[in-house]
Amino acid sequence: MTHDVVIIGAGHNGLTCAAYLARAGRRVLVLEEREVVGGFCTTEETIKALPGFRFCPTSMDVSTGNIPPSPFDDLGLEKHGLQWVWPDPFYSYISPDGRSLAFWRDYKKTCGEIARFSTKDAEKYATLTEIFMDVWSVSSPYLMDHPKRPALSTIWKTLARAATRTRNLSRATRLLISAPGPVLDEWFESPILKAAIACYAAGGVVPIDEPLSGLIMSILALHHRWGARRPIGGVGQLTQALAAEVRTHGGEIRAGSRVVELTEKDGRVSGVVTNKGDIFPAQQVIGAIDPFTLFQKLMPARLLPRQVDDELRGVGVYRNNFSSFRADVAIDRPLDLIVGRERTREIEASCMLFAPDVAMVRRASTRVFGGEISAETPYWIAAPSALDRSLVPAGSQGEALYVFLPVVPARLGEGKPWSAIQDRVLDDVLDDFGHYAHGFSESVIGKIARSPEDFWQYSNVHRGHLFHVDMSAAQMGPWRPTPSLAGYRSPIPGLWHTGAGAHPFGTLCGWPGRAAAKALLRAA
Fold first, then answer.
1. What is the pLDDT of residue 375?
2. Helices in 206-317 by DSSP H: which ranges?
């Protein structure tokens, strides 16, 4: 049988794309290399000696995907059992001396916390939040549409929203082309607030003083406006619900089926071949995978246009050598933070940020360029199980901790392998966290580190990049991932591209998958 569409990759964008196409009556087949669907969005028992402790190996929260119309809400995934929790506060910061700052969904409540350190900063934070809220309100219609050919309704909606927010948008332009570091220096005076936002901004996978990286700071405003949410049972429940939606409308999903080659007929892509030798003809093939794997590994060389090959050679993938590090840690008792038990209960499920000051974040960034890492590094820790007890064994008093280091080198200096140091790196972080949590060292019953090299092996994504390609200014909008590949439909007849490396960006939102499906349906 010839399918209407074969989709390579059952990550959340591939499944979102498949769901929209199946709902439109297309015969869809999704092929996934791993035995479990979800890509970077799974829930797994990663510490094999501790069954019942369940972790999200990469993603944890949905934020951009909450801006309406959200694909996850639009698809009605609750009918497949999907339920959510909303951590509030969504971020928090603890200083070495035990003071803390919570970022609540209500930004005015957050400003009340900031006022304890600086009334001036509280006022400025409110202003900055309102500016960035307007940025997201104005830009979101375009971000959900085709990057090169947005619909007329999108253009009018964008212009109408912009017309009522001209003052804030004018101020936003300078902020967006700047960088978090200089913005913090200019806008705020409180070391606590500056350290908190610097630690958060380090998650942008670029130095906090990198020009044109100001967008990362706007995510805080997005959280204030639309909140952050987590699927009960971890993000794997989201992708399981998406898979159920695909099957409900007649779509087929095959796990453990790695695509090894694209077939071609008369100069167009005509199907795929799997590692099992299965051949699946298709009217259209969509690669919901990174562009390097799709176009340089699976594509017959004779079909690859010279322009695409040239552009891919120039695409940045960890161009600054900035990557991230993840770890899963199981403890046998509740956290007992130095902020006190009541405050601990308030903030433990949030992403807790740890960096003593902005200077430390800058030093960590400088070391990354040279492929170095030391015990002095910013990190985030959350206890999602504090809100979702399905992540720990029944009757357990412990927690399943999410540990994230936003500033580590993708490649270590002198060609050293990450496997030689990753356990020590994790131990250094946990030792430091022990200064913030009473009795923490004695509570750890299991842990596993996941380095940038592990992400590559785990996912088979090119160089393990969580966003497939860097989210630099030259690789966004009508240039994501490259000018000739932007817009989902590739220059090769019969072949499409979506995923984290497609417009608009790589976060847990489903927008690239939905937009690719709509583009294909319009072209049919």
1. 78
2. 215-226, 236-248, 291-292, 306-313
